Amino acid sequence: MPLFPLNTVLFPGGLLSLRIFEPRYLDLVRECSRNDSGFGVCLILAGRESGEPATPAAVGTVARIEDFYSLPDGLLGIRARGGRRFRAGATRVRDNGLVHGQVRWWPDEPAVALPPEYSLLALILERLLEQVGGEHAQAGRRRFDDASWVGFRLAELLPVQPAERQHWLQLTDPLQRLDGLMRCIPRFQAA
């Protein structure tokens, strides 16, 4: 699978808008469109988003392109949605600088209803989504009862370091993720 190392973490169900300008990523978009396939989004562990190939985290999320558009500067813009998580094993860099990895799918999380002790997180998420808007702000009430969905959405929105987001992405138990989110909420409360 082609990998797109970024300074961000994509969660299942999350949306990602990208500005595509490097030839290797134009090739990636072309390949994904031609094969009706996705590409892997991985947090950068070392390096930068542009220039020499960066070192990606092993665990990432497959992204499927939903929309293409021209940006005001004439560059290609894409909107992609996060799908399943994966672990990339062996990676290689193609001649064009695009990193490819052999991936194994990360286990799907069990469907878990949001336990009452985490209801504060659903309330915080609802308030954040009211402020930022977007597609997730229109989610039905039942989504706020889904432990994985609440955890993934909060992990996207809270102002934390990418390494912390990566940790939450790698957890396979939604209740562990919610527990970590509960522990970090006091950091954001007004003094």
UniProtKB/TrEMBL annotation:
Record Gene3D superfamilies: BPP1347 like domain, LON domain-like
Q: Which domain of life is it from?
A: Bacteria
Q: Where does the Lon N-terminal domain lie?
A: 1-189
Q: Which SUPFAM superfamilies match?
A: PUA domain-like (SSF88697)
Protein name, per record: LON peptidase substrate-binding domain-containing protein
Record organism: Tahibacter harae
